[in-house]
Design a protein that fits this description.
73% helix, Rna Polymerase Sigma Factor, Chain: A, 181 residues, mainly alpha, Arc Repressor Mutant, subunit A
């Protein structure tokens, strides 16, 4: 690859790094692991950039690589993976990040978008907030969250689904109301 390509790819790294770190932390990686996985993601993306479909969003493509890197990491390590390795949880996280991608440009600051997400989470009712906290913050799987919240696993799964839907709708509204976020 030539020098101008390397410079362009470096710009893409700078633009997408905050989003990728945020996404990896949403999946349950701590800051240090997020940094490592983001670096692995960018290296893998660089190697297969010729396969990138320019009709797709670069950020979505990167998140797909990052998700695979994270899942491979958690499969290989002996410690318990975070709940976010559950496919329903990952789908919900991906849907929210895809909603951000649909808004006004990918180079927008991710800290503003994360503030919108936190604002939307704050609007949830207490049961939904508790489910979100137990699963996405505390790292419980659905079974553990059900025990801790004294509810059935299907009830917790339903709460998480409702919370993700409400967050997604709220994000869409807030992003439309704040086009520069």
């Amino acid at each position: 690859m030539d020098d101008s390509f390397d410079k362009t790819f470096n710009i893409l790294i700078v633009e997408h790094r905050p989003m990728l770190l945020s996404y990896l932390q949403s999946l349950g990686a701590d800051l240090h692991l997020s940094e490592d996985l983001a670096q692995e993601t960018f290296l893998a993306a660089y190697k297969v950039i010729a396969n990138f479909d320019t009709e797709k969003k670069f950020s979505s493509w990167l998140r797909g690589i990052a998700k695979n890197k994270a899942l491979m990491h958690w499969r290989a390590c002996s410690s318990r993976p975070p709940l976010s390795s559950d496919s329903r949880s990952i789908e919900g996280i991906d849907e929210i990040y895809n909603e951000f991608d649909q808004q006004n440009g990918i180079s927008d600051p991710w800290n503003d978008k994360m503030a919108i997400m936190k604002q939307c989470i704050a609007k949830l009712n207490l049961n939904l907030k508790k489910a979100i906290n137990q699963v996405y913050i505390h790292g419980d799987n659905i079974q553990e969250a059900a025990i801790n919240l004294k509810a059935s696993p299907p009830a917790i799964a339903k709460r998480l689904s409702r919370a993700r839907n409400q967050i997604r709708q709220c994000v869409k509204i807030e992003m439309n109301n704040n086009p520069h976020s």
